[in-house]
């Protein structure tokens, strides 16, 4: 069985995954285009990434071992459903209160779950088989951590200070939470990749 992880969450030096008013993404994601190795995107709306060789070695291995994603309805709507397919080219489980009107049935691109974070992760695990489940978005990461479902946290630390905005775990209910590691440290160009295990 694979692990449940936040995947690669890009974060500023002062701990924000988005700046005030959903700003700062151009600065946070500069590392997606500052290298020579192309990582293809399955989304028609998201171009291929061009990252450093060091980053690419890690990203390619993690993407290859990802079997399904879990996202919230907010991220799904904000990205326009990635044009119909997530860049990682796996089925995306969307946790929502109500299914979008333009998607009456589930398919290989998107599955919609209304029964809470436990049900969403369970469905993603079923889809992923032996591979990992990646949870995207701060609210989903917080809910997974609070429910004891999260095994690993992935941080892409970039050299920028945003001064405010959204943190990865937001208003986490049960603190403090301890982690082991970093169990992985990779220095890319304009980014340091860190992986931590959740202590259980």
TrEMBL record:
Q: Which InterPro entries match?
A: DHFR-like_dom_sf, RibDG_C, Riboflavin_Biosynth_HTPR
Q: Which part of the chain is the Bacterial bifunctional deaminase-reductase C-terminal domain?
A: 9-175
Superkingdom of source: Bacteria
Q: Which SUPFAM superfamilies does the record associate with it?
A: Dihydrofolate reductase-like (SSF53597)
A Pfam family matched in the record:
RibD_C
| Protein known as | Dihydrofolate reductase family protein
């Amino acid at each position: 069985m694979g692990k449940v992880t936040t995947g690669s969450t890009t974060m500023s030096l002062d701990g924000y995954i988005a700046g005030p008013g959903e700003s700062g993404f151009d600065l946070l994601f500069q590392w997606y285009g500052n290298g020579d190795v192309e990582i293809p995107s399955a989304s028609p709306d998201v171009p291929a990434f061009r990252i450093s060789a060091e980053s690419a070695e890690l990203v390619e291995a993690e993407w290859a071992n990802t079997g399904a994603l879990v996202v919230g309805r907010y991220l799904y709507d904000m990205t326009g459903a990635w044009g119909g397919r997530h860049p990682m080219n796996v089925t995306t489980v969307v946790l929502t209160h109500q299914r979008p009107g333009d998607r009456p049935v589930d398919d290989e691109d998107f599955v919609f779950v209304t029964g809470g974070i436990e049900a969403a992760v369970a469905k993603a695990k079923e889809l992923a088989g032996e591979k990992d489940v990646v949870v995207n978005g701060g609210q989903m990461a917080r809910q997974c951590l609070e429910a004891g479902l999260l095994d690993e946290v992935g941080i892409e630390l970039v050299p920028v200070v945003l001064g405010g905005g959204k943190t990865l775990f937001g208003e986490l209910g049960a603190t403090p939470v301890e982690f082991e590691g970093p169990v992985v440290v990779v220095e890319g160009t304009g980014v340091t990749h860190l992986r931590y295990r959740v202590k259980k």
